[in-house]
Write a structure and sequence with these properties.
Elements: H1 3-14, E1 21-25, E2 35-44, E3 63-72, E4 78-80, E5 85-87, E6 98-113, E7 119-122, E8 139-140, E9 144-148, E10 155-159, E11 162-163, E12 176-182, H2 184-190, E13 195-201, E14 216-220, E15 244-245, E16 250-251, H3 253-268, E17 277-282, E18 295-296, E19 300-301, H4 302-317, E20 327-332, H5 334-345, E21 353-356, E22 390-393, E23 399-402, H6 403-413, H7 422-430, H8 452-462, H9 464-479, E24 483-488, H10 496-507, E25 517-521, H11 536-539, H12 543-558
Parallel strand pairs: 1-10, 14-17, 14-20, 20-21, 21-24, 24-25
Antiparallel strand pairs: 1-4, 2-3, 2-6, 3-5, 6-7, 6-8, 6-9, 8-11, 12-13, 13-17, 15-16, 18-19, 22-23
């Protein structure tokens, strides 16, 4: 009976590996001023790519460990040891012996003195779309090969003598134009100049028809470096097709994407295609690659800035009709949520939304968590079991990672919601401001324990289903015919769960009925957008050509008397 504890101790003793220490610094040649930020130490067991590009939620992820630095001076070493929080191994003490490629990176923070009186340190977007791996100005070391040996006491020195370069701005073309404006509303909130940008796809014949004025379509989504999915040239017939996409079990996807972009150009310039403006917005924040297009206590009035500053300026410069009946919204995932949210929060400013695979549109199904009823986001409520909640799956239901995995990766990348990733941006958008000036956590990032007071705030301010139920008498007459939602029933992130609940409500609406559409793709994964005729890897590339005919029909049936339905139909 006493052998079991002894055996357990022996087993534990065999798994106590070396606890290496790393000393990380940067030279004065990279900065002669002290720097703030998140210092990341990344270990990879292969050199297929730099370690910084191998951190993800999937099974093949490599390891990252993070520590905050404040006023770090050039030449001053930072010791990264077993106390640094890591993913997927919690501590450097848990790293197995073996050969690794190691890289250090400093994700730089800047100080913001906001209008609400809070002073916070956050990573300013620098043209990359809030990506710590490539953000210009981030310092990093060259990857070096090391061996972690449990028999040796190790102290490894790394120097961050490299720096990510600036990202050049995209150039205008005949059809694609770029604008950038300083937002008065956002600059006032953040206490410094803040900007909004847009890539605008002009219709064929724009210059030849100077009297035409056009409907406007906002294609919401993640940070666009340029207008995506549009190319005036076909792909090179000799283009390499050896690239493999595991998700689609497909080789040569880059060439398929390039061909679809050229096909869109040919449709766009064809004789009978609708003549409209399509806009992709750049609105990165210090928390993410975009703002979620709504007003937020932590991020400022992005909804108002986009709707009342940026969009009118686009319409002024590019001859938009400039009225709500001639504006439309569509997008997928983040863009799907934004399209529906902007339609709900600004019902008079837009005439329809097409929301594909939207991020959770009710927090009763916040992916697999009900934040109003569940006590813990990471594990099913149980007095005895610890059953983890799944975070990502494939179309057969095979789980790729858990909710805890995803959140602990973010915690390694940044404390106080500063990872620049998915769960942290939802929190930044939906939460009240905490006493420290950062978003008040919806749950304990380490343990998953949910804060019901924060959940109540989310419900009243950003739960789109709750808002529609609560305010249908007022919103319903303004939204009838405008709501269209599409989702695969095997969405990788369980986003269909919230869509089911929304559909249940919309189907029973009265005075008025919603007169829209909710549709599902059988066994379809993330990014399914309502096209039953094509596989997901094709339909996800055709948002514009899929929704513009629907928008044209909506325009013809809903435009007010005397509306301009002719100048842009050439």
């Amino acid at each position: 009976m006493r052998l079991l504890p002894v055996l357990s101790i022996l087993c534990l003793a065999q798994t106590v590996w070396a606890q290496p220490q790393f000393s990380v610094s940067f030279p004065a040649s990279r900065s002669d001023q002290p720097l703030d930020g998140r210092l990341l130490l990344i270990l990879a067991n292969n050199d297929k790519a730099e370690p910084r590009f191998q951190i993800n939620d999937d099974a093949q992820t490599q390891m990252v460990f993070g520590v905050n630095v404040d006023a770090l001076k050039p030449g001053q070493p930072v010791v990264v040891d077993s106390r640094a929080f890591g993913y997927p191994r919690r501590s450097l003490a848990d790293v197995p012996p073996g050969d690794y490629y190691v890289q250090a990176l400093l994700h730089r923070y800047e100080t913001f003195r906001r209008k609400d009186g809070h002073v916070v340190k956050l990573p300013m977007d620098r043209g990359e779309g809030q990506n710590w791996r490539t953000a210009p100005g981030n310092l990093l070391s060259k990857p070096v090969k090391i061996r972690i040996d449990p028999k040796q006491k190790q102290f490894i020195r790394l120097v961050m003598d490299q720096e990510n370069p600036p990202i050049p701005a995209p150039a205008d073309t005949r059809y694609i134009k770029h604008i950038k404006i300083q937002s008065k509303l956002l600059s006032e909130f953040w206490g410094r100049p803040m900007f909004l940008g847009a890539h605008v796809l002009l219709p064929a014949g724009f210059d030849e028809h100077p009297d035409a004025r056009y409907p406007l379509c906002v294609f919401h989504g993640h940070f666009p470096g340029d207008f995506s999915g549009f190319s005036e040239t076909p792909p090179d017939p000799k283009m390499d097709t050896t690239d493999y996409i595991e998700r689609f079990n497909l080789y040569g996807y880059r060439k398929i994407v390039a061909q679809e972009a050229y096909n869109f150009y040919r449709q766009w310039t064809s004789k009978d295609f609708p003549r409209m403006l399509i806009v992709e917005i750049q609105h990165p924040t210090p928390y993410y690659d975009d703002s979620y297009a709504v007003n937020s206590a932590n991020q400022g009035p992005y909804g108002d800035a986009i709707t009342y500053e940026l969009i009118p300026e686009i319409e002024r410069r590019f001859r938009g009709i400039g009225q709500g009946w001639a504006r439309f919204l569509y997008g997928g995932s983040t863009g799907g949520w934004e399209a529906l949210a902007a339609q709900v929060f600004y019902p008079d400013e837009y005439n329809g939304c097409f929301a594909a695979c939207p991020d959770p549109i009710t927090f009763s199904a916040y992916t697999v968590v009900d934040i109003y009823k569940d006590k813990n986001a990471y594990y099913l409520d149980s007095p005895f079991k610890r059953t983890p909640r799944p975070g990502k799956r494939d179309y057969l239901g095979h789980v790729k990672c858990t909710v805890e995995d995803m959140n602990h990766r973010e915690l390694a990348l940044g404390t106080n919601g500063r990872s620049g990733d998915q769960w942290d941006i939802w929190q930044a958008v939906y939460s009240p401001v905490g006493p420290d000036g950062y978003p008040k956590p919806i749950w304990n990032k380490l343990t998953g324990e949910i804060d019901p007071t924060v959940a109540a705030y989310w419900r009243e301010n950003y739960d789109l289903l709750h808002i529609l139920k609560r305010d249908w008498a007022k919103l319903g007459p303004k939204l009838t015919g405008k709501i269209h939602i599409y989702c695969g029933d095997m969405d990788n992130y369980y986003l269909n769960n919230a869509v089911y609940l929304m559909e249940d409500f919309l189907k029973q609406t009265k005075s008025p009925h919603y007169y829209g559409e909710v549709d599902y793709g059988d066994r379809a994964e993330h990014c399914w957008n309502g096209d039953h005729t094509q596989p997901n890897y094709i339909s996800r590339l055709r948002y514009n050509t899929l929704y513009l005919p629907k928008i044209l029909k909506r325009l013809e049936t809903s435009a007010p008397a005397g509306a301009d339905l002719r100048s842009w139909r050439y």
